[in-house]
């Protein structure tokens, strides 16, 4: 049955999306100590659940730190920043390419201009200290992490990006949305970039991404109800299901602490 195979394929992509995130975390945390895939799964899904009701998943940082000694809290928060940071950089990179491909040249120029301004601010304020830490210090800490760890982190992040963006693409195909491949992928990249730039809560993620998606796909004359349904389904497959599993690890953790 094609519909059953299609459903299994979409579930497989959701599994791979989260699995590559788990491998990313296992790779980064290896600079502190080696952990198994099972332990990394527990930490990633538990932290995802902890961050569900916090703005932009901020609670995820504290969630992961709970699995380590208090003395390692700053290091864990820092590693999580790198873990999420590479995904954000890829979202910006592919998003800008997508906007350019779709003809939003003014938007692209404005984003590039903003990036140049931020880079200049970053360059001229790298020695300014905030709570004893400067940007220069932060860059030094990033460079302390072995290159092989950074390279693996980038590779896994690219794989993850390609997985969830293509999951979005295959869902549109399942609903008979007939658009050229590059137009569809460029639109998906633009949606993810702009939606991730807006402050939101994970449990409202479907509403934010759905609204941005309705705007962009509306330009391409795609039925808005199909767009809303697909955005909600993506949220369910990639946020709700992992959070349901993660809640088991959170409850188990609390019972152990009690």
Structure description:
The chain is mainly alpha-helical and 258 residues long. The N and C termini lie far apart (48 Å). It has helices at 2-29, 37-50, 59-65, 73-101, 105-124, 135-144, 147-174, 181-196, 205-219, 224-257, and strands at 129-130, 133-134. α7 (147-174) crosses α8. It has a two-stranded antiparallel sheet with strand order 1-2. The longest helix is centred in the C-terminal third of the chain and has 34 residues, at 224-257. The protein has 10 helices and 2 strands.
Low-confidence stretches: none
For the largest beta-sheet, the strand count, sense and barrel status come to:
2 strands, antiparallel
State the separation between the terminal residues, measured CA to CA: 48 Å
How would you spell out the order of helices and strands?
A: HHHHHEEHHHHH
Helical residues, percent:
over 70%
Count of individual helical segments: 10
Mean pLDDT: 86
- Beta-strand segment tally: 2
Radius of gyration, Cα only, in angstroms? 19 Å
Structural class of the secondary structure composition? mainly alpha
Proportion of beta-strand residues: under 5%
- Overall shape: it is globular
């Amino acid at each position: 049955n094609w519909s059953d195979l299609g459903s299994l394929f979409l579930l497989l992509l959701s599994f791979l999306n989260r699995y590559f995130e788990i491998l990313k975390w296992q790779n980064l945390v290896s600079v502190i100590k080696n952990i198994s895939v099972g332990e990394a799964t527990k930490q990633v899904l538990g932290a995802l659940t902890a961050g569900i009701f916090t703005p932009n998943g901020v609670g995820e940082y504290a969630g992961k730190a709970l699995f380590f000694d208090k003395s390692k809290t700053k290091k864990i928060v820092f590693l999580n920043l790198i873990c999420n940071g590479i995904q954000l950089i890829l979202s910006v990179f592919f998003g800008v390419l997508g906007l350019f491909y779709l003809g939003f040249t003014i938007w692209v120029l404005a984003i590039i201009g903003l990036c140049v301004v931020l880079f200049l601010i970053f360059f001229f304020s790298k020695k300014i200290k905030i709570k004893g830490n400067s940007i220069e210090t932060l860059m030094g800490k990033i460079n302390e992490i072995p290159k092989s760890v950074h390279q693996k982190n980038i590779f896994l992040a690219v794989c993850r990006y390609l997985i969830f963006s293509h999951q979005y693409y295959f869902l549109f195909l399942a609903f008979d949305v007939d658009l050229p491949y590059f137009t569809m992928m460029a639109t998906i990249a633009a949606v993810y970039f702009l939606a991730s730039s807006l402050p939101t809560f994970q449990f409202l993620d479907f509403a934010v991404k759905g609204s941005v998606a309705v705007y962009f796909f509306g330009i391409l004359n795609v039925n808005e109800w199909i767009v809303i349904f697909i955005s909600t389904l993506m949220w369910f497959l990639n946020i709700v299901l992992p959070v349901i599993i993660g809640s088991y690890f959170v409850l188990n953790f609390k019972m152990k602490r009690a």
